[in-house]
Amino acid sequence: MKIKELYRDERPRERLLKKGAESLSNVELLAIMLRTGTRKMNALELARTLLGDSEGRIGGIAAMSIDKLKLLPGIGPAKAATLAAAFELGRRCADERPAKARKSISSPRDVYRLMIPHMKTLDHEECWVLFLNRANHLIGKEKMTSGGLESTLIDTKMIIRKALEKKASSVILSHNHPSGNPMPGTADITQTRQLKKGLDTCDISLIDHVVIAEGSFYSFADEELVEC
Fold it and tell me: Most exposed of 5, 27, 116, 191 (fewest Cβ within 10 Å)?
């Protein structure tokens, strides 16, 4: 059955306009983004299939790359791009703060709250850097490298170059552990020490290195693992 053949009150778009987006199920919201289905499935059925492929988790869809989305039945380049754009807007909205309400980053938990929207659904490691001014206000954040399931490279030269370009007084390093265990490995410790040494030569402080796992984090500064 096509969406147009449903009663008006059962159509997702009409229900959203009448009752608001919060009244719709995940399947209905996905169907609105997909807009159309296939010859065998309408948009609702396609959305239900897509959600089933991610074990019923919206985060599972958000974590899929565009290339992976395009391989799913009924999801071509246009639908994959729409989904990727929608989830990226969601991440940016969660991360956005009014300029007047901007606060300094004063604890590892601040870093965790800032970075978890980017890292929560990842199935691979990524290394991000937060660039701060003298008041510890965030002046920029950037993904530096993307690695595999168990490791990622900390590119010291690139981080120093970016910090100098942004005229940052200090930086905070952050990367994720998809395993769920935030404890740093030997490579994490070694690379962090190398980064600190390199930043010191440019009079830039390494405030902390926060390892993010879903629901927990590890702070190098708090644990005095490296003298940040």
Answer: 5
110 vs 69: CA distance, rounded Å: 32
Q: What are the structural domain ranges in the chain?
A: 3-95, 100-223
Higher pLDDT, 104 or 129: 129
- Full-prediction pTM beyond 0.85? no
Fold for 100-223, please state it.
Answer: Cytidine Deaminase; domain 2 (3.40.140)
Pick the CATH number of 3-95 from 2.60.40, 3.30.530, 1.10.150, 3.40.50: 1.10.150
List Cβ neighbours of 64 (8 Å cut-off, separation of 6 or more).
54
Question: Is the dihedral angle over the CA atoms 16, 22, 23, 27 positive or is it negative?
Answer: positive
10 Å CB burial of residue 11 (0-12, 13-18, 19+) is buried
Mean of pLDDT over the chain: 87
